[in-house]
Specification:
18 strands; eight-stranded parallel barrel; Lyase, Ornithine Decarboxylase, Chain A, domain 1; alpha/beta; six-stranded antiparallel β-barrel; about 25% helix; TIM Barrel
Length: about 375
């Protein structure tokens, strides 16, 4: 009976999700789409996301075997496990649960398996995180010759700054081409090659790269504002709270913890029913903007608390207790998730992923 008594909630717009995956398909063309749905589809809810995008997705990318095992019953598409694995997880792998392998120790472990396994090999072309080096291809070849059960379904790399540094990104892509050529000369065959994240989809690529891995664009955010002319995305998540209290205060009144804000004149201050415990960044203290629906933008004043924060509504007429407040999402361009994230010195991915479980998700079409 208490299920819907929430002070903050997130509307997940399934029509926006459908729009975004259609737009991604348009950009991808004939390339396969590996839809990234790790961390519960970036906080949007993986089950509903799969329901909408399944017809457009050739594979799904998740962080670990736990995510794959939870979701595999809802689709017959293969899962690519991007975040590596531990020895006790190998028993769960099969032809539709494919680990990404990025080091010789792991590859050697899998080579001893007695059941058929599909895997993808990851190479480091400049991300500096995980991945084989070019010089390890000979060792890869030697290990693979000892196993009749392993099939290389794909090879991949990860772009470090596709949205911000085209020169470096093109160097990464060219290194990947060299790796692909060397693998083929070594007799290592594979079905798929992929390097493009969302931003990487806008680079010209040879046909040998036949798959892409969109992530953040599925959920309506842009890797960079420069892509707005190339693809029409709509925010899928709109995070809302409500005004729960309004009071008039005098000049020089301190607001919230630490007294980091003092009014410069007689002011009208409203309290909003969400805080960092819900996922609204504390880093937006004294610099956030929210949209009171149908009435206007209001600045965040004082420190964001765990369960609430304050806004200055002095210059906005007719604001009432119970009014709906958009923290990010649809409603006004200033609360687009990308703009909110920029004010918080973060990225929209983090906003979405930090949404608390106490925030109710409401799905609409």
């Amino acid at each position: 009976m208490f299920r819907d008594l929430r002070h903050s909630y997130a509307i997940i717009d399934l029509k926006a999700l459908e729009n975004n995956i259609n737009e991604i398909k348009r950009i991808a063309g004939k390339r396969k789409i590996i839809s990234i749905i790790k961390d519960n589809a970036y906080g949007h809810g993986a089950l509903k996301t799969i329901e909408i995008i399944d017809n457009f997705s050739d594979l799904y990318g998740v962080a670990n075997i736990k995510e794959a095992l939870r979701l595999r019953r809802y689709t017959d598409k293969p899962f690519l496990i991007l975040g590596g694995f531990f020895p006790n997880e190998v028993k769960h792998f099969d032809n539709n649960l494919m680990p990404v392998v990025y080091d010789l120790e792991s590859l050697n472990m899998l080579s001893k398996t007695e059941k058929p396994l599909n895997i993808h090999l990851e190479f480091d072309t400049g991300m500096g995180r995980t991945g084989f080096s070019f010089d390890e291809i000979y060792s890869i070849e030697k290990i693979l010759k000892t196993s009749k059960k392993l099939k290389i379904k794909g090879v991949m790399a990860h772009l470090a700054c596709a949205e911000s540094d085209e020169t470096y990104t093109k160097k990464q892509i060219n290194r990947f081409y060299s790796i692909i050529e060397k693998l083929k000369k070594s007799g290592i065959n594979f079905d798929d090659a992929h390097i493009s994240n969302s931003a990487g989809m806008f680079y010209e690529l040879d046909d040998v790269i036949n798959a892409v891995r969109p992530g953040i664009m599925i959920y309506g955010s842009y890797p960079s504002s420069k892509y707005k002319k190339l693809i029409n995305l709509k925010p899928v998540m709109t995070f809302k709270g409500q005004i729960i209290y309004i009071k008039s205060v005098e000049k020089n009144t301190p607001i919230s913890y630490g007294c980091t804000f003092k009014t410069t004149k007689k002011s009208l201050i409203a309290t909003v029913s969400a805080g960092y415990g819900d996922g609204y960044p504390r880093n937006l203290s004294n610099k956030g903007l929210v949209y009171i629906e149908g009435k206007g933008l209001a600045p965040v004043v004082g420190t964001v608390c765990m369960d609430m924060f304050m806004i200055d509504i002095t210059n906005i007429p007719n604001v009432n207790r119970g009014d709906s407040v958009v923290l990010w999402g649809e409603g006004h361009e200033e609360v687009h998730p990308d703009r909110v994230a920029k004010r918080a010195d973060t990225i929209s991915y983090e906003l979405f992923c930090h949404l608390s479980e106490r925030v109710k998700k409401v799905y609409k079409r």
